[in-house]
Amino acid sequence: MIHKNKKTLIMGIINCTPDSFYSQSRKQGPGEALGQALSMVKEGADILDLGGESTRPGASYVSQDEELERIIPVVEAIRRETDIPLSIDTRKSGVARAALNAGANIINDISALRDDPQMTPLAVEKNCPVILMHMQGTPENMQNKPQYESVVDEVLHFLIQAAQKAEKAGVLKENIVLDPGIGFGKTLKDNLDLIRHIRRFSKEGYSVLMGLSRKSFIGQILDTDPENRLIGSLTANGWCAAEGVDILRVHDVLETSQMVRMLQEISWKD
Q1: Dihedral sign for Cα atoms in the order 78, 34, 120, 181
Q2: Which pTM does this prediction carry?
Q3: Whose CA, among 116, 118, 252, 265, lies 20 to 30 Å from 63?
């Protein structure tokens, strides 16, 4: 269960990949990843999200063997040093199972349990939290003219259906987290509409995660590259925190943690 209990949770991103869109998030090997993990723990991370396959627009599929080689030594190294909850960002049940057996705690599936028919039974077996994300298309083609009649209605409908299907299979409702998938098959307007109306997702009784850190829609608005999108990320994440989002998935843990702490102090009522 990862409901917030009056606190917005900070999920730090560690990409065990050579090609993720933000170069500073790429960590090669367990040594680099462990160093980043321990830094994020000190900076205020509540969860760490580990990924062995880039899902940036245009990214290619990575084999299970390669993904396992990238991610399992990292999970083992981090788990030897800290008990912080670890999320495994994967579409493959074989990778998820190995990571959970090595000490990970959460499945983060950008396909919302659609890509691998064994992912749902695994989540039931392990009784672990599962993050279900909306994506139109695949990482390879998702930004090729995405279209919606009503993006908020359609994304919310998809996620509720995915959650209900998971519940019917045996996943506990309190273990389900909804992620609207900012940047995954969406235009600039689509992303902004989802952020503006994010409170609608929280009304469904599930935890809600937003992953918008340094993404391209921020660059479109501010005309900046990923290395210069910190202020834009903090602003958008601040809006989401104020609107009740449970988990913020971010590259910049210290700055986001400080921002959330300030918001919580300002909004606290005696």
Answers
A1: positive
A2: 0.92
A3: 252
